[in-house]
């Protein structure tokens, strides 16, 4: 066993080297990649391609076949007022969640960035909702919102409603009520992102502002907020991308109701899937994908601009 | 301390405690409901009059949560090491080797991150049926054991490893596999912990895929069991739902307390440095 390679080496060093290059340098990276490529290809790549194909067919999932119908599925969803309702609800959801996600965690981060006793404990307590499974969060809030729950009592006490009211079952308030769950769950996560941004602001900026007699509010609006612009961009884009995919908190609290008031794009797709309209679901999924890609391109553009700013 | 500073601090603490009520309050209210005895009203007085663990016991016994707990544990316990292994393998050549097709593979993997799950869940559902993965643990595990996010995260980590360390190992005659295993992998340990946490949270609380793929209640995970239990969302069930919610959260709490600092740095790992 040991001798043969030596003999070979004597015959042709060049061909042996080439052989090693082929078996080693060529194959090695693919051997590292193999398990992931097989799994991602089979359970991610293939279903994505199938979804593309199905969106141009009238696919029947039970029969496992479908005729080519061109753009008919897209025409159908664009003519469907429930689709437009879902699109508008998705946008409304983002309009509610985005400003709250940008400002509330920023205030929290500013609070827990102070050098005071016990601040680490508060950081942990604010982070708790982040680690809670979404199903649990949704059900806890459903209880809080119920007609006898604490939120109805507070609203009654404040005189906002005359009788105990469940915000989740009123079509005027349901979307706001669901958004509150999303915001609550994300507070701690975005707080940490802001905290990282805050800790990169040089302290002497604040010190010189203090010498000039700046108030707490002035320091916050004139130094903290402008210096946090990169974090604000990041939180905004993450909120938009996550917000377009919002599902559990809606499915488990309102189920899209009342009367479609909380049916977002993802809920619309899920309902189509449940009624086995998988081609319509696929077409609507592609629309969602286009929107998600748009948001991601926006992110890339903004973050590359951010890097340019940092370099300059 | 000046009086002005003192009152300022007092206000600060008051505000922070108020926010704590908002973030922790829902857990406490749920815990209190879960500890109320059968004769007590669910709402009204917040604290349980005669605190009891009865509801936790019935969640385990009658509502089958011991089985759901076991299913979730099996799926999570297998998904974490496999995801770490496959992602750390795949990320290595993408960070450290020059080969044809590298940029294409990397771009393909990263671009899948923006594809919403809802787009391809129907074809996936059909595929899992064809492969015999419906109502199996394997069917739930495969979705977690190689994630684009994990590959991306680890690639970033490998890029930060100094090249000189690997080069000296090559001079000592090690092959690529050995260099990966003995040099690169130990150096990205913090990122592996971060990915383990992300995988844990993603798998433990996963809802939509288990909901679709597990139609048989013997394969329910905690999320699905909880959602099924809550279909009957009224006075008769709320104490049980509360108890089951607390049970579902406890493992994540334990892991969080254990690996706190990784959770905090992981949040920025995934976002800021990514």
Automatic annotation (TrEMBL), chain A:
Residues 87-299 form the ABC transmembrane type-1 domain. Keywords: Cell membrane, Membrane, Transmembrane, Transmembrane helix, Transport. It comes from the Bacteria. Its main location: membrane. Coiled coil: none annotated. The chain crosses the membrane at residues 24-49, 91-112, 124-144, 150-169, 176-196, 223-243, 250-270, 276-298. The keyword Nucleotide-binding does not apply. Belongs to the binding-protein-dependent transport system permease family. This is Sugar ABC transporter permease. The lineage of its organism: Bacteria, Bacillati, Bacillota, Bacilli, Bacillales.
UniProtKB/TrEMBL annotation, chain B:
CDD domains: TM_PBP2. Keywords: Cell membrane, Membrane, Transmembrane, Transmembrane helix, Transport. It is found in: Cell membrane. It comes from the Bacteria. Residues 69-259 form the ABC transmembrane type-1 domain. The keyword Protein transport does not apply. The chain crosses the membrane at residues 12-34, 68-92, 104-125, 137-158, 179-201, 240-259. Its main location: membrane. It is a multi-pass membrane protein. InterPro entries: MetI-like, MetI-like_sf. Belongs to the binding-protein-dependent transport system permease family. This is Carbohydrate ABC transporter permease.
